[in-house]
Design a protein that fits this description.
heterotrimer, A alpha+beta (511), B mainly alpha (99), C mainly alpha (103), B: 99 residues, C: 103 residues, transmembrane (chain C), DUF3325 domain-containing protein (chain C), DUF3325 (chain C), membrane (chain C)
Chain lengths: 511, 99, 103
């Protein structure tokens, strides 16, 4: 019974891992980068490399909003933080699509558009939605991958006969197969607390996307069950526009009241509903900088009088859900944890790659010529080094495309995304054509693109590494240093792969 | 049947098993979530009952989807996971507020 | 400054605890110290290792209180585990240093 249970788990681990490994790698890779999404923003949007403002004034930003989006039904102003010094104004355009423009925090003046989705609008959403817009397909695929990840962690523990005895074992000097499997087990078992908590918390963020019927049924007496659930659980206030013009009271007193209500902490964002209307109202959401929980503490003020209309704080279990979500989002200020998350995410990437390599190693002798084997070989290359290469191409394109670039009807930001996907596709094709030799080539390409990105940042913005290090401007210095570190790892890997290949060729010749 | 070869024997069985693990597992979990939310709403505010039940749903899904690979008899899987999914479908489509 | 020292203490204790736990396993003891550890010593290493890990938690809670401290501690354990595994592979000296006390 125990033997067959382990056998069935081995089968599950092998095949579920194989089928979803590529998707999981993409999610882990983008998730690891998302930890530093705001820093990637600074690197990719040089106009936002600003000092965080000393004090906050909303009036100039509102004046800009009136100019930029006079007819929008709402303005959401993301306030500056230590990681995002600019203000970001989100507003729905005439078609209802959300647009954003960055404002200089002191003057409220719009910053020149940077024509990029950068970290927080490309890399971060990729992590949880894959940018698949059709319905919620991307969310469901990521959810499926997340559930698969949880089950792979459990089945992996079952398959691994001695997870405790081998906990610290990494026989790097043994043959490649042994070292690879040790590394898979090491990253899987030692990293297990991180991987399990991150995967589960990632799923918990979207409870209501993955189990929407729970709310629909619990509120089946309401005309709009989902709306009622959100109102009661997450807090929401709304009222229709009056259709008559009105003036907005100054926001500073409202800010003061919010700070008083939230033990001195300010809001993360201020949202003005129906601006210019007599029934306008102002929503403030408490900042997450000093707590794990992605809170739902809200205050709504009447736009005309500044009186509090509605105040909300979530109930304990919803707070728990928001705490678990917050563990995943890491929106709070904690640099040691941020780096640990980054390392943990990359260890997950290593776990997935070594899993793939184990699958290939175990079958290379018997099946090397078969189409299915070759398919997996190319798939592995494309999904591992390929996505890294594509990400670097995305960074390089960001530094090479002029601000006013347009091509075939696509805006600059879309062109960057095209570069990403085309390079990724190319990496798959390269993987299928060159097979295991593609690893080496792509490692060299990664090294070159990473160094090129650092050089291009220096040339196009003047913020070269010596300067940013001397000034202690860490968002850009850190990104450059990580790119160089990545290049070093890629060169090391490429050279190891070359030696390995030489050994293999000798074996073929003389063996 | 104790080898992985036996496990993979017959692609039809494999397809069934995967379908049961993924779709049947989800349907079963959904039924559990909906029922639990209903039971909990007797002692908790409704939104709290919903969010607790739904969070536990992921663990239920994890458990049954692994079990779908371990249980040898497909018929048992069909009865439990298929039955659970049917129950979820009935509950969702017969709820008074749902058109 | 105090924050930095406490952070260092969190990691140092997590690493030391993991190193003690690793040495309580015969394979690693043999590789680092030679010979076999003996039952009493294994027990002492396990208990000591657990205490080091607990001490790491104390520093984390002192530094960051519960809400940030517990995640920090969990991540320090993971990092400590990786560090010990890599040290055992390439630099066993780094294990000896933190386990050089008489046990």
């Amino acid at each position: 019974m125990v033997a067959s249970w382990r056998e069935s788990m081995r089968w599950q681990h092998t095949w579920v891992g194989l089928v979803l490994g590529a998707l999981l790698f993409a999610i882990f890779w983008m998730g690891s980068l998302s930890v530093f999404d705001k820093e990637i923003d600074r690197w990719m949007m040089p106009a936002t490399r600003l000092e965080p403002p000393e004090s906050l004034s909303l009036a100039p930003a509102l004046a800009s909003a009136r100019k930029v989006a006079p007819d929008a039904s709402r303005w959401r102003l993301m306030l500056p933080t230590s990681r995002s010094p600019q203000m970001r104004l989100y507003y729905p355009d005439a078609g209802g699509d959300l647009q954003f423009v960055d404002l200089e925090p002191g003057t409220g003046r719009p910053l020149p558009p940077q024509g990029t989705l950068a970290g927080s609008e490309f890399i971060f959403p990729f992590h949880f939605s894959l940018h698949l817009k059709a319905g919620q397909l991307g969310y469901w695929l990521v959810g499926l991958a997340g559930m698969a990840m949880l089950s792979l962690l459990v089945s992996g523990l079952v398959v691994h006969r001695k997870p405790i005895q081998d906990l610290f074992t990494f026989r790097a000097h043994k043959r490649l197969g042994r070292a690879n499997l040790d590394l898979h087990n090491l990253t899987g078992v030692v990293g297990l607390p991180f991987h399990f908590i991150m995967t589960l918390s990632g799923l918990v963020i979207f409870v209501n996307i993955y189990f929407p019927d729970a709310a629909t049924l619990a509120y089946d007496d309401a005309a709009d069950p989902q709306g009622r659930f959100i109102e009661e659980g997450l807090g929401r206030f709304s009222r229709p526009p009056a259709g008559e013009p009105g003036t907005l009271a100054p926001l500073e007193p409202m800010l003061e009241r919010a700070r008083a209500a939230w033990s001195g902490e300010g809001p993360a964002f201020v949202r003005v509903w129906h601006p210019g209307d007599a029934a306008s109202y102002v929503e403030m959401r408490r900042s997450n900088q000093n707590m794990v929980r992605i809170n739902r503490d809200q205050l709504y003020f009447d736009g005309g009088t500044g009186e509090v209309l509605f105040r909300f704080e979530a109930m304990p279990l919803m707070k728990t859900q928001r705490f678990i979500s917050g563990l995943h989002f890491i929106q709070f200020d904690h640099w040691p944890l941020r780096w640990l998350y980054f390392g943990g995410g990359l260890s997950g990437c290593v776990m997935i790659v070594t899993g793939f390599i184990f699958w290939l190693q175990a079958r290379r002798k018997r099946h090397a010529g078969q189409g299915a084997f070759r398919l997996v070989e190319g798939l592995t290359v494309g999904s591992v080094t390929g996505i890294i290469l594509a990400t670097l191409a995305f960074f390089v394109a960001n530094r090479l495309l002029p601000l006013e670039a347009r091509f075939a009807g696509y805006e600059r930001a879309a062109l960057e995304v095209w570069v990403f996907f085309l390079v990724w596709l190319g990496a798959f094709v390269h993987g299928w054509l060159q097979r295991s030799d593609a690893w080496r080539g792509q490692c060299w390409a990664i090294a070159m693109l990473a160094v090129a990105a650092v050089a291009l940042n220096a040339v196009t913005t003047g913020d070269h590494l010596l300067k940013t290090l001397a000034e202690g401007y860490w968002p850009v210095a850190g990104m450059d240093l990580m790119l160089l570190a990545g290049a070093a790892v890629a060169v090391w890997s490429a050279r190891r792969l070359t030696q390995h290949r030489a050994v293999r060729l000798r074996e073929v010749e003389f063996g | 049947m104790s080898t992985s070869g036996g496990m993979a024997q017959g692609w039809l069985r494999t397809v069934q098993r995967i379908g049961l693990a993924v779709a049947g597992g989800y349907g079963f979990s959904l039924a559990a979530v909906v029922l639990l939310a209903w039971l909990l709403s007797a002692v908790l505010p409704r939104s709290e009952a919903v969010v607790l039940a739904a969070m536990l749903g992921f663990l239920v899904y994890l458990g049954v989807s692994l079990w779908a690979f371990a249980e040898q008899r497909l018929l048992t899987l069909w009865l439990v996971l298929g039955g659970g999914s049917l129950a979820a479908w009935v509950m969702v489509s017969l709820a008074p507020g749902v058109a | 400054m105090v924050d930095g020292l406490l952070l260092l203490a969190v990691f140092a204790c997590a690493y030391t605890g993991m190193a003690w736990l690793a040495l309580s396993q015969e394979r690693h003891w043999r590789a680092v110290r030679g010979g076999t550890p003996g039952r009493a010593r294994i027990r002492r290493l396990r208990l000591g290792g657990a205490l080091w890990l607990l001490l790491s938690l104390v520093w984390a809670l002192l530094r960051d209180a519960a809400h940030f401290g517990v995640p920090l501690w969990v991540m320090a354990l993971v990092a400590g585990g990786f560090a010990v595994a890599l040290a055992l592979t390439w630099k066993p000296r780094c294990i000896e240093v933190v386990t050089a006390l008489r046990h």
